[in-house]
C-alpha cells in the first residue's frame, strides 16, 4: 500500500479566500497518487464544485491548470481571468458560509454521520465540516465559530 497524505487545511487562504488551496492540493495529491482513496469520490463535487461556481470556471479546466504545474496563485489568477473575480464582500460571504457549513443547517445530520463514522461523535467542539476536516486530518487546533 502506498503512502497517502491529507490535503492542507480548508482554513488555508489565498487572496483572502478559504478552501481554494485545499482543492488545488487535493488535485495535486491525486495526480501523484497520494490522496487517500476515500477522498476521490468527492473530487469536483460539493465544496470543489461550489468553489468553481463562485469563480465561474469548470472544475475540469481548473484541475488541468493545477495538473500542468501552475502554482495556486497562478491558478486563481487564471480563474479570475477566465471566469470571475469575486468582490471582497462576496469573498467574505463565501468564507462565512464555508466556515460555518454544517452548523445548524440542512447538512448538520450528515456532519453527525461523518463524525460517527470517524469516531469523533463525542467531540462537541466539532460543529462544522471545516472543523471536522481539521480534526479528522490532524491539522492545527479547531478555530472557533
Descriptive tags:
single chain; 145 residues; 2 domains; two-stranded antiparallel sheet
Any overview of this molecule?
- The protein has 145 residues and is mostly helical.
- It has two domains: 13-100, no CATH class; 105-139, no CATH class.
- Helix content is 50%, strand content 3%.
- It is built from seven helices and two strands; from the N terminus they run ββααααααα.
- The protein has helices at residues 20-31, 47-55, 59-67, 72-82, 88-100, 108-117, 129-137, and strands spanning 13-14, 17-18.
- The protein has a two-stranded antiparallel ribbon.
- Strand 1 and strand 2 (17-18) form a beta hairpin.
- The longest helix is centred in the middle third of the chain and has 13 residues, at 88-100.
- The chain is globular, with a radius of gyration of 15 Å.
- The model has no long low-confidence stretch (mean pLDDT 95).
Q: What string, H for helix and E for strand, traces the elements in order?
A: EEHHHHHHH
- Main sheet makeup: 2 strands, antiparallel
The percentage helix is: 40-55%
User: What strand line-up does the widest sheet have?
Assistant: 1-2
Low-confidence stretches: none
Tell the overall outline: globular
Number of strands: 2
**Percent in strands:** under 5%
Distance between the first and last residues' Cα: 37 Å
Given the helix and strand composition, which structural class is it?
A: mainly alpha
**Radius of gyration, rounded?**
15 Å
Please, how many domains?
A: 2
Number of helices: 7
Amino acid at each position: 500500500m502506498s503512502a497517502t497524505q491529507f490535503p492542507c487545511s480548508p482554513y488555508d487562504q489565498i487572496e483572502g479566500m478559504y478552501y481554494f488551496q485545499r482543492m488545488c492540493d487535493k488535485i495535486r495529491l491525486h495526480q501523484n497518487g497520494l490522496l487517500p482513496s476515500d477522498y476521490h469520490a468527492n473530487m469536483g463535487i460539493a465544496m470543489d464544485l461550489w468553489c468553481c461556481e463562485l469563480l465561474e470556471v469548470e472544475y475540469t479546466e481548473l484541475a488541468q491548470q493545477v495538473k500542468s504545474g501552475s502554482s495556486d496563485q497562478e491558478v486563481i489568477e487564471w480563474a479570475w481571468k477566465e471566469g470571475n473575480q469575486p468582490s471582497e464582500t462576496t469573498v467574505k460571504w463565501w468564507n462565512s458560509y464555508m466556515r460555518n457549513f454544517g452548523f445548524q443547517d440542512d447538512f448538520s445530520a450528515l456532519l453527525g454521520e461523518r463524525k460517527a463514522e470517524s469516531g469523533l461523535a463525542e467531540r462537541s467542539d466539532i460543529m462544522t465540516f471545516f472543523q471536522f476536516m481539521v480534526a479528522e486530518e490532524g491539522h492545527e487546533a479547531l478555530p472557533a465559530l
